[in-house]
Amino acid sequence: MKKLAVLLPTYNAAPYLKESIGSVLNQTFKDFDLYIYDDCSTDDTKEIIESFKSSQIYYIKNEQNIGLTKTLNKGLTFLLTQYEYIARMDADDWCFPDRFKKQLQFLENNQEVVLCGTQGYWLKDMTQNPQDGWVYPTESTYIKYNLLFGATFGHSSVVFRSQKISEHHLRYDESKINCQDWELWTRISKIGNMANLPDFLMKYRILDDSNHRSPDKQKLNIEYRSSIIASHWQTFGFSFSAAEIKGLYYSEKEVERAIFKIEVEKIIHAFNGVFEQSKSELSKSNQKHFSYKLARRVLSYWKRSGVNRMSPSIWFFILKRIRFMGKMKLIKSLIR
After folding, report:
1. How many CB atoms lie within 10 A of CB 40?
2. Which of 82, 175, 260, 267 has its CA 20 to 30 A from that of 248?
3. Beta-sheet pairing, 2-10 with 193-205
4. CB contact set of 202 (below 8 Å; sequence gap of 6+)
């Protein structure tokens, strides 16, 4: 079995593709093949790929446009049985030269890890080299809890361990045109450990028309998120419908005071319960981060609900019920 395949799907990404491919071929770790799946691009994608004249590149063009999720699954199905590891890469992103070397070293030394990502910079100008950036959790236990709030990995930073993905017949959910990565991570969290390296090894290109940023797709994106989060809550023994999650996490509609108290009590009950579970798994530092995240989620719902934030009775109602954070810290958190 070969060591590493890089799975790079592309569709009309010609302005960025050369830079992305170049960063992959420039890796210090050389034992890999790059599979570029072209989903029927109508630009000069093929010419750009062929200009590299590299024996490491395999170009596959879909017979018809099938979308990102099905293209990813097509690539996984072909590659999983041939390569020990599969790395993801997007056609508009860029990776630092030591990315594969560091990820494979980590995976070789941590056999229980099924999926490994990295930190990365989110940029509109890819020539920038920031001093810091958004940091994803690195520890597997915290990643599992953090998936209740976000995807927790930069999609094109991840490397899969093929054996585990094959054993459990895992693929992306083809009913989703975005958030398919987040949904898959929640299922992988049930079969093995996941990790993010602390190293910043990626640059992600911010595009206004990307799947999760374009206005016409934001509504669908929220629907997918709500469904994924509701399903993941079941992992911790709590039941929410996708509609409930949408209201608690994302809705901008104001609600009546009585409805607010019912809804906020339910989410606080779940937050108390999941925090209690986390205490046996998370470090003190991650417990602190997690409790703060829970408090901010309560505040977010309170703000969006339109219920008076100066009401003493609502303050008393909330403070009486929250057990995942001390009262003084909670007050400081909620008034920010």
Report:
1. 14
2. 175
3. unpaired
4. 93, 94, 95, 96, 99, 118, 119, 120, 121, 154, 156, 157
User: DSSP string covering 208-228, please?
Assistant: TTSTTTSHHHHHHHHHHHHHH
Strand partners, 4: 32, 85
Lateral strand order in the sheet of 57-61: 57-61, 32-38, 2-10, 83-88, 159-161, 113-123, 193-205, 94-95
Average the pLDDT over 115-142 and give the result. 91
User: Nearest Cα to 144, choosing from 249, 273, 266, 233?
Assistant: 233
Residues 6+ apart with CB under 8 A from 328: none
Interval 71-121: pLDDT, tens? 999 999 999 999 999 999 999 999 999 999 999 999 999 999 999 999 999
Are the C-beta atoms of 20 and 49 separated by less than 8 Å?
no
